[in-house]
Specification:
The complex is a heterodimer. Chain A is mostly beta strands. Chain A is built from 13 helices and 52 strands. Chain B contains 18 helices and twelve strands. In chain B, strand 11 and strand 12 form a beta hairpin. In chain B, helix 5 packs parallel to helix 7 and helix 7 packs parallel to helix 13. The longest helix of chain B is centred in the N-terminal third of the chain and has 23 residues. The interface between A and B is large, with 100 and 105 residues.
Chain lengths: 1008, 549
């Protein structure tokens, strides 16, 4: 805590000094004067409410009702005049008064806030002819979250973000662009400032915008790396148009939710006895023992524990501090940021005299982005980001600790024996108290450096509009892991004689290791051409690319290619785009390493036509369409899969002969190559529409798409007699299609501003071809089903009595069947017809999977005077999860959920779950629709209320703006799932998973 | 202006230079030397060390059978024992849930994987740079042995299989029907003959660094057991006597070589303990000897440092041990068996193989399996389910206590001399009846255990039962019973009924004994052979599932 505060205050004073220095420096040259003028629109009418700012200074005012302004500045200062809907104008202050400034009306979707980042370029929204969604992060909530993905959930159309973990520093999430169109892996690729980088651990304030590339016309540029969609992340750059210093201070708590509910020792012992009886065995706990548990008489003999209560806090602290400064002038622009993030774990009692083993995450982020105009024609930029992350965990790891808490019977042992030693038994050798106080801790420090050098040389003297560009990145990362170690002993006093397990060791260092060292370089270099000829505009680009990911422990990952793009526009009305790439990867056989991926697209702004001139109702209408292909070289499996390799181990490792028992040299054929291996190809057709109504207040974008992914890598289906694995072959085909909408509404009603957003995507996919389907009955084939479908039994309730078991098809396949077991439907047999026997031929492939086919998000932002209020919701539909492992979790699968709703002869009519048992449980745990539940949910992803202090008041303290806010993340979830599990991360809080967390936060942002 | 022009020129030069760098520095940026991760085929065969290493590697498929799943032995899948973990997957063999989609120990893909290694060696070694080249024939002999061994492991599980006597190519038609049963037997026997013709006679003849490699007697032992299995009722429906005679001859050939002997009674338990007696004379072939104590910690009684007591011998097995003095089964009223003192005056092997109430393990500790005794605590889920623990394979010298661990070298013994003798007597009795040789060799096995000779004048059928019982006792827990019951076609008789344990109640200083059923068992016709895994049948349609599955 102390160190970061010191650093922040140092940094702050440094910045303020710089600011003053620069003021001072300019002051010596120029004279202070009062300047005045009038701002008018294109019809020479005065414009009220236009902002006038002096570059690099803390001056900002609005024009009055007559469009007039008057301010004190220095000569040669630059004034920046902005008004929504108009193009921003800059002006050097030289005349003292009566300056007439005319603002030009921006055409729809081509204004100053309509920039869309495309690969190595920027376009206006209007010019975009492919399917992309772009989002400015300024609208994101300021909630302290260690993973940026989670802030974006529900916000960007076509991008599905699924949170998968909650551990501090590991609250990971998956990102899918337009659902799933492969039965292989399907995560989107994330490029930060144009190159492949880890994005989730950046600070939110480092990010300027996010663009999701969805159709072929957007993706073909990236050739072989574009197969699962691309997310372009752009970091903030300095601008001559604004200068500010921002300080964010946030604190909050994370609240534990949806944790498994354990049984009391008495309930546990009773349930265990019941299970023993169900198994045809004698009971384990006699009346004396049951009484002991119930009356807590002898806690050493009859231990009663509630581990999750004893060792987990209800909430934990989280905090984040961010300091950033941005600004610049005409030759130098900068953005710098420093942030500190601290997320504490939920372990109780983990702090002792020697160490703190509570899980936790601390992170420093740094960024300095500088653009320098070397001369009129050359701009050189350095974009550098760095971070240091420290993840602390108990010595056994957080998951092992949680697993012990969730899965140890409440009566297994006393935490401490009568003599103060740790309790334990032969079967339960992990004592939770020992795990956090006597196993030391581990610390993993990741250091990451991300740098890019960008240079742009204008070549107008050769050809007007031509420029040469180079973008070279140097990223390095490494992990240093260390920690302390110690071990404890446990005693079991409940046997015939005291028994000791584990070995006590004194506190010592863990072996430190420096791992994950790698360096990534990516170079993009080539020419851009950007020019308007009257009504024609041409923007073209051709770039060569080279990528290497090197590490001392392995061979390089490399790729290289050429990407080109040409866009043509006519009268701001018709647009045509062509994109292609010729891209290769070292993972494919020589001679067929490179693929060519072309795409074409076109757009038509219909409202520019005379027959449909924009009016009050219809402000804007654009139609667009695209077709093309992209590839995926990330096919998994062995590297160089086209080659057969032999492994060898000359130093031993082979079989042991002789009386010396030392290993012999060894050599072996390790794989058979597939010389025909290649990438996956995805061909996409996309038709879109963009619409604005009611003077641009309402916005709608809609896309329909259809894609075919072919050459999906699928396991070679070779009989085992070959004796060797053949890796994979390109034989899968998946078709997918969908429709997506993105809409928004924003309106000013006096001091009341309202803004609504919403997006939804409906997708579906179908496997057209997949290997290994011979010999499988039709109703079990994956072909024709969605990718990720399930092969399950169809259940038919529970057997309530032996008579029903006798009258039903035989389920002997699973072992002994008694009342209270799940009944299954007889579907088929070897010849496909029901045969009165339940076996694997009775499993049916159904279109149920955990990935939703509809996902949506919507949100509101309301501001009234100084108060603002925003919410964002995320929802999914069509997601099915298997709850078997969730319900049957805990020691021997016992927990309150099972206890309350299991089958017993008495509860036969109301039981939800089968009878309990310790053995022969296969029938009741088999994959079946008995255990499938819809995990559709609608979640209030975040909510935030803010109050901004009045500017007049702040001005005295040289503060531009300050805002105090309260926020919450994952606050409310609407779902039909009533098991006490979270529908998004169902495993959280059971098994060995970190519990689900809600975050509440307060924050203060001050802008100087 | 000049200055600017200069800047432009220099930066253009810089850009051009970089672009040339990008496009021109290497012929193909994506081709680089990737031999870091492996070597090419020719590198292996051109190296003496690696070519020999290839054969060494092919041995890695030799199975070690002490832990099929969670410390379970295959004995718990037969009428020898139950597993103390009642949820163990080993129980799929017993409870009727075994099937093509629920397999354990199927070994199908694994064995073919190792067969491929032996085939590659057989195909490539002749032209390899093994130095001196005169070593090549013997090394090939080992490969023949291994190929026979891996085929045999498949054969004993599945019956007729697809013979892989060459390395298949990926473009070859691999969905092919199985070879016939006789072809399978012929293939294994012929590989054994090829191996036996060239290999050193036995482990004793091997150099110190080569002990444990395949030998002539090892190859002959596979042959003898293969022929025995082939002659047995499960596979010899017509009762062809000549098949039995062939099996007898193959076993006798090993005896005649006189390279092996039964370890003396005092050293009996050292068979499985290489720390005491490495590569002892009784062993024809054994797996690599791991230095472990997990066999003990998995199977010792629960009061011994938290051991898990996995393999619990059943009462039926205990009853198979005869009375020492009379040499008669306990069921014989004249045997001298006292059901109130059941463990006295029994075959010495009972104490060597099984821990019962009052056995000494890790002297002076006594095993207490009476109800409430330290090794029979119902609150411990690992407690014995039958009142017995396994003793065979377990050594007092192994320690797994927290602060003192010690390991012993233990191989899994695949072929030992006692089995050869029993194979011989069984086959000979079937081929010729209880002739003199039958008595001589079965009595050798009994004599070592301190048991009286078998009474003269037994009929062929009586002798068969005595031989079968002798196998059950002598070879218990060694994975013979599982296959023996099947090849005798007695699954329905032995494996389709509940198995029992002994409940011992202690009152004062007296014990009372009561036999109770502890686990029901299911065996049906299809269980005689292993099911091929469904995943394999989906790839190899012509393989055809074994009957009934």
């Amino acid at each position: 805590m102390n160190a970061p505060q010191k650093i922040i205050s140092l940094f702050l004073s440094f910045l303020i000094t710089c600011n003053q220095l620069s003021l001072h420096a300019q002051g010596t040259k120029n004279f202070t004067n009062t300047f005045s003028g009038t701002v008018k629109d294109e019809n020479k009418k005065p414009l009220a409410g236009a902002s006038v700012e002096i570059q690099e200074k803390n001056t900002m005012l609005l024009t009055d009702a007559n469009g007039k302004f008057s301010l004190i500045a220095e000569t040669k200062d630059i004034a920046i005049i902005k008004k929504e809907g108009y193009l921003t104008t800059q002006l050097v202050l030289d005349a003292l008064s009566d300056m007439n400034i005319e603002l030009t009306l921006a055409i729809t979707d081509a204004g100053e806030d309509d920039n869309v980042v495309i690969p190595f370029g920027v376009r206006k929204k209007r010019e975009i002819t492919s399917a992309m969604s772009s989002y400015q992060t300024a609208g994101l909530p300021q909630i302290p979250l260690s993973n940026l993905f989670n802030s974006l959930a529900g916000r960007i159309s076509g991008l599905y973000i699924q949170q998968t973990d909650n551990r501090p520093g590991n609250d990971n999430a998956n990102m899918y662009v337009r659902g799933r169109s492969s039965y292989g892996s399907a995560g989107a690729r994330i490029l930060v400032d144009g190159v492949l980088r880890d994005f989730q651990d950046m600070d939110l304030n480092e990010i300027e915008s996010i663009t999701v590339l969805k159709d072929a016309a957007a993706l073909a540029y990236y050739g072989l790396s574009a197969g699962h969609g691309i997310v372009l992340v752009t970091t903030k750059k300095g601008s001559a148009l604004r200068s500010a210093i921002n300080v964010d201070v946030q604190g909050g708590i994370q609240q534990v939710d949806n944790i498994i509910k354990p049984l009391s020792s008495y309930q546990f012992a009773n349930l265990y006895n019941e299970a023993r009886l169900n198994d045809n065995n004698a009971i384990t706990y006699d009346t004396a023992a049951l009484n002991g548990y119930q009356n807590s008489r002898d806690l050493f003999k009859y231990p009663v524990n509630n581990y999750t209560d004893q060792f987990l806090k209800k909430n934990s602290a989280i905090q984040r501090y961010v300091l950033s400064a941005e600004g610049g002038n005409n030759t130098l622009r900068y953005f710098i940021l420093l942030s500190y993030f601290d997320q504490q774990g939920i372990l109780k009692g983990a702090n002792n005299n020697d160490f703190n083993s509570n899980t936790g995450f601390k992170r420093f982020n740094f960024r300095g982005n500088i653009d320098f105009d070397v001369n009129k024609n050359l701009v050189i930029s350095l974009y550098a980001g760095g971070r240091s992350e420290n993840r602390l965990n108990p010595g056994d790891g957080i998951n092992a600790f949680l697993s012990t808490l969730y899965n140890t019977p409440p009566n297994a042992f006393p935490i401490r024996n009568a003599n103060g030693s740790y309790g334990g038994t032969t079967d339960y050798r992990n004592n939770p108290l020992g795990m956090i106080t006597d196993r030391g801790y581990t610390s993993a420090i990741d250091r990451v450096l991300l740098t890019s050098v960008v240079a742009k040389q204008k070549l107008d003297f050769w050809l007007r509009g031509l420029s040469a560009n180079i973008n070279f990145s140097y990223d390095a990362s490494g992990t240093y892991s260390a920690g302390l170690n110690r071990d404890y002993e446990i005693y079991d006093f409940n046997g015939a004689a005291p028994q000791l397990f584990r070995t006590k060791t004194p506190l010592g260092y863990r072996s430190a290791a420096f791992t994950n060292n790698n360096r990534r370089n990516e170079l993009w270099a080539g020419f851009d051409f950007d020019r308007n000829f009257g009504n024609h505009s041409i923007q073209a680009s051709v770039k060569g690319q080279r990528y290497v990911n090197a590490s001392p422990e392995r061979l390089d990952f490399r790729s290289q290619g050429i990407s080109a793009r040409a866009d043509y526009g006519f009268r701001n009305k018709y647009y045509i785009g062509l994109v292609s790439s010729y891209s290769g990867s070292e993972n494919f056989p020589p001679g067929s390493r490179y693929g060519f991926f072309p795409a074409a697209s076109a757009g038509w702004v219909v409202t520019e036509e005379r027959f449909l001139k924009a009016g009050n109702l219809l402000s804007y209408l654009k139609l667009r369409g695209s077709y093309g292909s992209a590839g995926n070289s990330e096919i998994g499996g062995n590297r160089f899969p086209f080659e057969s390799f032999y492994a060898r181990n000359t130093g031993g490792g082979g079989y042991t002969f002789g009386t010396g028992f030392s290993g012999t040299p060894s050599a072996n054929e390790s794989s058979l190559g597939n010389p025909l291996i290649t990438w996956e190809t995805i061909k996409t057709t996309d038709i879109g529409l963009e619409l604005k109504l009611f003077k641009n207040a309402f916005y709608l974008s809609a896309d329909v798409y259809k894609a075919r992914r072919s050459g999906i890598l699928t396991d070679a289906i070779i009989p085992s007699i070959l004796g060797q694995t053949l890796g994979t072959v390109n034989q899968g085909i998946v078709d997918s299609k969908g429709i997506e909408f993105d809409l928004g509404y924003s309106k000013h009603l006096g001091k009341f501003n309202i803004s609504l957003n919403g997006n939804i995507i409906l997708t579906t996919d179908k496997i057209i071809s997949q290997n290994g389907q011979d010999g499988i009955p039709d109703y079990q084939k994956t072909i024709g089903k969605v990718s990720g479908s399930s092969l399950i039994f169809l259940s038919d309730g529970l057997f309530n009595d032996q008579a029903l078991i006798n009258a039903s098809p035989s389920q002997a396949f699973f072992g002994r069947i008694i009342p209270g077991d799940v009944k299954y439907k007889d579907v088929g047999s070897v010849n496909g017809k029901p045969d009165g026997i339940i076996d694997n031929f009775d499993r049916v492939r159904v279109n149920k999977r955990d990935l939703p086919n509809v996902y949506y998000g919507f949100g509101t932002t309301l501001t009234y005077k100084v108060i603002d209020f925003s919410t964002q919701w995320q929802g999914v539909k069509g997601r099915t999860i298997d709850i078997q492992g969730l319900v049957n979790s805990g020691p021997f699968s016992f927990n309150q959920e099972i206890y309350n709703r299991r089958w017993t002869p008495a509860t036969a009519t109301t039981a939800v779950y089968p009878r309990v048992g310790l053995t022969d449980r296969g029938n009741n745990t088999a994959g079946s629709d008995f255990w499938r539940r819809s995990a559709d949910f609608l979640r209030l992803k975040y909510i935030e209320v803010g109050v901004s202090l009045p500017e007049a008041f702040l001005k005295k303290y040289h503060i531009k703006r300050t805002r105090f806010y309260l926020g919450g993340f994952n606050m409310l979830t609407i779902t039909k799932l009533d098991l006490g599990v979270d529908p998004e991360i169902p495993g959280a809080g059971r098994g060995d998973q970190y519990p689900y967390l809600k975050t509440y936060s307060v924050g203060l942002r001050t802008t100087f | 202006m000049n200055k600017i022009n200069f800047n432009i020129k220099s930066s253009i030069t810089g850009f051009s230079f970089l672009i040339i760098l990008i496009t021109g520095c290497k012929k193909d940026y994506l081709s680089f030397d990737y031999t870091d991760g492996g070597v090419r085929e020719e590198d292996v065969w051109n190296s003496d060390r690696l070519a020999r290493g290839f054969l060494n590697n092919a041995y890695l498929g030799i199975l070690r059978r002490y832990d099929l799943t969670d410390g379970a032995l295959l004995a718990a899948a037969s009428d020898e024992a139950v597993n103390s973990n009642q949820g163990s997957t080993i129980n799929i063999f017993n409870n009727g849930t075994w099937g093509p989609l629920r397999t354990l120990d199927d070994q199908y893909a694994n064995m073919y994987n190792y067969i491929r290694r032996t085939n590659l060696f057989l195909e490539k070694s002749l032209t390899s740079k093994i130095n001196p080249a005169t070593d090549i024939p013997a090394l090939r002999g080992e490969a023949f042995f291994l190929r026979a061994y891996y085929h045999f492991e498949l054969f004993k599980r599945y019956g007729a299989i697809i013979i892989a006597n060459h390395s298949f190519g990926p473009t070859e038609t691999l969905d092919i029907p199985r070879n016939t049963f006789d072809e399978t037997v012929t293939q294994i026997v012929s590989d054994c003959d090829s191996a036996a013709a060239i290999l050193l006679p036995s482990i004793a003849d091997q150099g110190i660094g080569d002990k444990g490699r395949a030998s002539q007697t090892a190859a002959m032992a596979i042959k003898a057991r293969t022929l025995l299995y082939a002659a047995s009722p499960l596979s010899n429906a017509t009762g062809d006597i000549t098949k039995w005679q062939k099996a007898a001859d193959a076993a006798k050939a090993i005896i005649i070589l006189n390279k092996h002997s039964l370890l003396p009674a005092a050293q009996f338990s050292n068979i499985w303990n290489y720390t005491s007696q490495a590569y002892n004379a009784e062993i024809l072939f054994a797996s690599v000897a791991d230095n472990v104590n997990v066999i003990e910690s998995a199977n010792a009684p629960i009061s011994y440092d938290g051991a898990r007591g996995r393999t619990n011998p059943i009462q039926e097995l205990v009853d198979a041990f005869e009375m020492k003095t009379t040499g008669k089964p306990v069921t014989d009223p004249t045997s001298g068996y006292n059901s109130n003192d059941p463990y006295t005056n029994r075959d010495n092997r009972l104490g060597l193989f099984i821990m019962y109430n009052g056995s000494v393990f890790k002297s002076p500790k006594l095993v207490e399996t009476f109800v409430g005794g330290k090794d029979n605590m119902i609150t411990n889920i690992n407690t014995t389910k039958t009142g017995y623990y396994m003793r065979k394979f377990l050594y007092d010298a192994a320690n797994w206590a927290v602060n003192s661990t010690s390991n012993l070298r233990r191989p899994w013994v695949h072929f030992r001399y006692a089995e050869v003798l029993l194979n011989y007597t069984e086959a000979l009795n079937e081929a010729q009846g209880p002739v003199a040789d039958v008595y001589i060799y079965i009595n050798q096995v009994r004599a070592r255990a301190g048991m009286p000779v078998l009474p003269a004048g037994l009929s062929k059928d009586q002798m068969r039962l005595r031989i079968q019982n002798e196998r059950r006792v002598e070879l218990c827990f060694e994975e013979h019973r599982f296959f023996d019951v099947r090849r005798w076609k007695k699954g329905e008789e032995f494996l389709n009924k509940p198995v029992s344990g002994m409940v011992i109640t202690k009152t004062g200083a007296t014990f009372t004994y009561q036999v109770v059923a502890v686990e029901s068992r299911v065996f049906t016709e299809k269980n005689y052979r292993f099911p091929f895994p469904q995943s394999e049948l989906n790839k190899a349609v012509k393989l055809q599932q074994n009957p009934g599955w």
